[in-house]
From TrEMBL:
<feature type="domain" description="Nucleotide modification associated">
    <location>
        <begin position="1"/>
        <end position="124"/>
    </location>
</feature>
<protein>
    <recommendedName>
        <fullName>Nucleotide modification associated domain-containing protein</fullName>
    </recommendedName>
</protein>
<dbReference type="InterPro" id="IPR041135">
    <property type="entry name" value="Nmad3"/>
</dbReference>
<dbReference type="Pfam" id="PF18754">
    <property type="entry name" value="Nmad3"/>
</dbReference>
Amino acid sequence: MHFDPEFKTYTYGDPTSKRSSLLRLQKNDLLVFYAGLKPYNQKKEEAALYIIGYFTVKEVIDFNLLSTEEREKYCKRCKNNAHIKRMEILGEEHLDDLVIIMGQKNGSKLLDKAIKISEKGSDSIGRNLHVVSKKMRPIFGFEGSIQRSRPREVKEEYVDKLKNLLFVE
């Protein structure tokens, strides 16, 4: 099983094209995680996207910029991260292009109750997809598809609304 993000030591990693978005994060930024879920035991409710948790960024680690010694140090610090665990099995080349975000312990949380953020929509050729719900648009400051999309940035003027939604101080 691939737990990423992981909320024990608050790490999230990605070696794919999303890495460039992660590298723009700075200390104290909010990184919000969402997942496709379906309410348990409710046949009428369809699957949707839900916020499941967040990190307040403590550190952004670009493994491409680290020496061998620094990589070893961060592998020990981030030992619960799924990408580090994979590297231990498959070899150090799995650290190439990896970016790990470390969250602040007191500013990061796995939510007790997920927050629904999507509704059904469709793309230009009529295929179903998840779009930001009408209720969430004034909080996020954007609309459109968020289904497997590139990471979206919430503009500064909307950050406080998002923090209020998540009860972040």
